[in-house]
Amino acid sequence: MTGLCDQRKEIYFNYFIKSLNNAAKNMDPHYFQIPVAGEGEDELYRERVYCYELYHQLRLELGDSFPYKLYGEVDKSGHPIIREAKKPDFIVHEPGNMDNNLLIMEVKSIVGAKNENGLNTDLEKLRLFLDEYKYYRAIMLIYGSENGKLTDKIETKISEVKADNPDIRFAWHPSIKRGVYLI
After folding, report:
1. pLDDT at 133
2. CATH number for the domain running over 2-182
């Protein structure tokens, strides 16, 4: 039975990736980077603003017939099974059923991903949910770029993590009106 369940989860995971790609293409530029008032100010990456718009676009893409529910920033403190007080950026699961968790996703801007402590904290959360709470897959989504690229430091970290845990997938949303690339 596990093989069949995993095949179904893989189909739904791939559907989610397709929806994530479409949602990323539909985001308004103001949510990708926030314009700042004032002379000489650059646009800023703000993870919460990006995540809220991504959530909205994902809900539109996934629709009501998708068998899993998408939640953003669910506070897991007080959960009878999940003991750690964690707040994943996104979870896709069947509420009330710990045997049917599809994925957990953490999001970092290119600026936030360069901060090794912040990135490591998110990666530890992904590993925890995969290992302890039986989520099928995890996604670390990085949005933005430096001169159209990821930094060497981030690419090295991605290579290290992928070698240790193939169930953590990396996605990159380099710029507005472009899709998400799995790395």
Report:
1. 85
2. 3.40.91
